[in-house]
Amino acid sequence: MSVDRSTADGSRGVADSPAARLQTLFEGHRLTPTQRRIAHSMVRRAADVPFLSSVELAELAGVSQPSVTRFAVALGFDGYPALRRHLREVAPAEPAADTTSYNEYQQAVEAEIENLKHLAEVLADPRPVRRAGRLLAASRPLPVLGLRAAASQAYGFAYFAAKVHPDVRLLHEGGTMLHDRIDAAVRAGATALLCFALPRHPREVVDTLAYAKAAGLSVVAVADSAFAPVAKHADLLLPAAVGTGLAFDTACAPMLLGRVLLEAMCDDLPDAQARLEEFDARAATRGLFVE
């Protein structure tokens, strides 16, 4: 789903970022899964892409060089050189700083810093997050879905959300009961579902979102990319890239985006502050925390 990336005050926002210009270029094109993978890799390395050869981009995306050529043609260019010339014309920039002197652990941290910077650019336009906050705050109950790699993101959101929202229902285990629990939430009055979707994307998540949509729920998704498989079932998709430099993906940006969503939801829950103060008072009475 596309998002309005303009800013009301005319300041530099997400529309001015290289990543946003790339996403705008890709919108409106029907891309194959391989082409979506290339697009995702380009967005993640938006500052470097105008300087990459087709072979380098293929290696970055983990695809063949002919796939990169077909991708450029699918976007309406004669070939990859024409696409690269276009990118250099519309997004002139210096190559990213050389990080070859960093060891592999430092490189993973630097990559996460870049992901967080990109998230900051996306949040320059707060309207999508505020809209998501309104949808989540209004849903009673509020189902929160996250399976496998995304289960911890869903759990963390649900843990804190339960302190301010009267009825949060965590869906972090797959199986045949998932659809039953969505049915129960709908019968209880749910109007929206929040989904955390991270690689590798389980087929069960995509199927569950399709079921939730058919049941009448609005779907807010936090995903690693605007081209993630869950995008076609999301009414509002908020992208936050994951790091891929280590054996297992890192997800600092999706976690932070989840906290931002919590903040936006609190803004639309008039009794959120009172609930937090009540919890703090009870925690003090019980001696729940050592500090």
Write a compact overview of the structure shown:
The longest helix has 19 residues, at 104-122. The chain is built from twelve helices and five strands.
Report on the structure:
- The chain is built from twelve helices and five strands.
- The longest helix has 19 residues.
- The N terminus is likely disordered.
- It is 50% helix and 8% strand.
- Strands 2-1-3-4-5 form a five-stranded parallel beta sheet, sandwiched between helices.
How do the strands and helices of this protein lay out in sequence?
Layout: H1 18-26, H2 33-44, H3 54-61, H4 65-74, H5 80-90, H6 104-122, H7 127-138, E1 142-145, H8 151-161, E2 168-171, H9 177-187, E3 192-197, H10 203-214, E4 218-223, E5 236-239, H11 252-267, H12 272-286
Parallel strand pairs: 1-2, 1-3, 3-4, 4-5
Helix pairs in contact: 1-2, 2-3, 3-4, 6-11, 7-11, 8-11
Key phrases:
single chain; about 290 residues; alpha/beta; five-stranded parallel sheet; HTH_RpiR; carbohydrate derivative binding; RpiR-like; SIS_dom_sf
Continuous helix count: 12
Strand elements, count: 5
Helix content: 40-55%
Give the overall average pLDDT. 87
Strand order of the largest sheet: 2-1-3-4-5
Instruction: Supply Rg.
Output: 20 Å
Strand content: 5-15%
Structural category? alpha/beta
Uncertain runs: 1-15
- In whole angstroms, how far apart are the ends? 45 Å
Sheet of most strands: 5 strands, parallel
Element order, helices and strands? HHHHHHHEHEHEHEEHH
Shape: globular
InterPro entries: Homeodomain-like_sf (IPR009057), HTH_RpiR (IPR000281), RpiR-like (IPR047640), SIS_dom_sf (IPR046348), WH-like_DNA-bd_sf (IPR036388)
Organism: Streptomyces sp. R21
Protein name: MurR/RpiR family transcriptional regulator
GO molecular function: carbohydrate derivative binding; DNA binding; DNA-binding transcription factor activity
